[in-house]
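User: Some background: our group keeps a shared notebook of sequences we're curious about, and every so often someone picks one and asks for a predicted structure to add to the entry. Today it's my turn. The entry only has the sequence so far, pasted here. Could you supply the structure so I can complete it?
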Amino acid sequence: MKEALINGLIAGLSGKVGKEFIIFLISMVPILELRGGLLAAGPALLDVPMWQAIPICFIGNLVPIPFILLLITKIFDWMKGTKKLKPLVEKLEHKAMNQSANIEKYEFWGLVAFVGIPLPGTGAWTGALIAALLGIRFRKAFPAIVLGLVVATVIMTILSYTVLGTIFA
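Assistant: Of course. Here's the predicted structure to add to the notebook entry:
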């Protein structure tokens, strides 16, 4: 599914906007995030130089995080007041809270690991949502997410530019 979404975004935007803007957008999309942005940027797809791709994808993934941390609970409360949106919000909250045990237990370092280790269902978006739902303060959650993104950047850069770069070069 992620590959299809990445390929769809690339196909839909190629020729209309620059490669850099495409990876910036991919990095902002939930589910894809920095991981998808760096995979798209690598030699296997868009071949954006690593030194350009890293800050673009990092910033792209980071842009929505303050809004999620500061506003998502208010937005969810409003959405729960509507019949049509309430089930969606409850599903999102349930999914996020099912993954919250280590974040709740270890807070800062749990959040760093959750965001940093590239496994399905993890990342900055979900980490920010869980932090907000657990009531972790912005000044603690935001630095943990940034540090987690640094870890994810290192891992995904190695995968995208070294492992996959060697295969597709």
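Suggested note for the entry: DSSP finds ten helices and no strands in the chain. Residues 76 and 89 are 6 Å apart (CA to CA).
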